[in-house]
Amino acid sequence: MARARMTVSAQPFERIRSEHGHDARAAHSGENRGMSVKSAIDPSVEERGAGEPSALDPVEVQESLRRDVRESERLLDALRPLGSRGLDNAPVCLREVAGRLRRLRPGDDARADLAERLAHTLAGHADALEDAARTHLLDGLRAAAAEAGLPYRRLSDDPLEVGLGPLEVSLPPRGEATLRLGREEVVTADQDPDAIVRGVVREIAAMKENLIPSAEFFDLLSRAWRMAVAARGPSPDGRVDLVDLLLPLALLELGPDQWRRARAERGVTPWPRYRLAYQLYRLRRERHLVGRGQRLELAAATLATTRDTRNVLHVLDGDGRGQYYGAVRFVPEAATERGAGSPSTTTASCDTPGAPHDAAGDAPTCPGAEGGTTSRQPDRPAQQASVADASDAGDGLHAALDLFRTPEDP
């Protein structure tokens, strides 16, 4: 829609003079010989005298009018989404209008005070609308979860997070909700109670369908680790990053017979991060960290490596909190048993720079990595936690995670 442009002309001043009982030519008449354009706008000029300066400048008046028109048009533009996008966007629109009102430069204190009061009122309405929408969403989620048989947990208020069954749901003020397993993203959904619950139920069914029994997954993970070690070349301790196993796991699960077809037709999609995280959780909970003469070792991520969470993986533990892990390796079970008695193995923290090596010369096993209770404070002794401790602890999360179990699971 084309906007009318304001032109500089004498018409506004002619109108003002006529409203004060003066003809357009009165400024040049003998009766009003001392009246100028400024006195037509401000009659008090006559009282002060022709020689005194006027408080109003015609150019400044027109510039002020232009500015008010522009700001009014911007305010209208900010309000239009209220009618086109519905009340879901009302808080955003109201805050935008309030901000524009505060940026106005009215010509007098009364108008400035009015603009500030209006902006404050609009911002208050925006807060009230957001609070009402948040309460409505949480009530709807609680009801929809109960209907679907999903446990509901309120996790935090800022950011707003709830637990639905085994998954966590992050609900930002705007945008889509994020469904996560621990800290690993699973999928996004519209911020609608039914849509979120449908997403949770759908992902639970998909993860149950793709679940690999722990004994088979242990062998698959071992082969993926060997593939990554072969690709990277020999290393002093045989550790590789957990996230580097996502593509080898997908290749090995697909099978060599399908590699050529997959490369030609659609390529190979790496495993989702949350799938590896959940399989590792199951592996630890079911105490299946040893097999075929090998033991799985997970190294907890350091504070430095967790700055970029793309390089680490968050794995749940028995109490539902979990932690980030960085590296993985498989070692002979006999060597692990010999190293278990070494003081450096039980006291060295993975987060402590320069941690001593064990008697075999290997990098220290992260204390508690198998149990998920590694200390991240160098001045606090790390505690050796068993897998049984990790699996027996909990606050009801296991009951929620059991939704993933298949009938043939123990």
Task: Write a compact overview of the structure shown.
It contains 15 helices and ten strands.
How are the SSEs ordered, and which strands pair?
Blueprint: H1 11-19, H2 37-41, H3 44-48, H4 58-85, H5 90-103, H6 109-148, E1 152-157, E2 160-164, E3 167-170, E4 177-181, E5 184-189, H7 193-210, H8 214-232, E6 240-241, H9 246-254, H10 259-265, H11 273-285, E7 290-291, E8 294-300, E9 313-315, E10 323-332, H12 333-340, H13 343-347, H14 387-392, H15 397-401
Antiparallel strand pairs: 1-2, 2-3, 3-4, 4-5, 6-10, 7-8, 8-10, 9-10
Helix pairs in contact: 4-5, 5-6, 6-7, 8-9
Description:
By secondary structure, the protein is an alpha+beta fold. The protein has 3 domains: 11-130, no CATH class; 149-208, no CATH class; 213-404, no CATH class. Helices cover 47% and strands 12% of the residues. It has 15 helices and 10 strands. It has helices at residues 11-19, 37-41, 44-48, 58-85, 90-103, 109-148, 193-210, 214-232, 246-254, 259-265, 273-285, 333-340, 343-347, 387-392, 397-401; strands spanning 152-157, 160-164, 167-170, 177-181, 184-189, 240-241, 290-291, 294-300, 313-315, 323-332. The strands form 2 sheets. It has a 5-stranded antiparallel sheet, covered by helices on one side. Strands 6, 7, 8, 9 and 10 form a 5-stranded antiparallel sheet that branches. Helix 4 (58-85) packs antiparallel against helix 5 (90-103), helix 6 (109-148) packs across helix 7 and helix 8 (214-232) packs across helix 9 (246-254). The model is unreliable at 1-42 and 339-396 (pLDDT under 50).
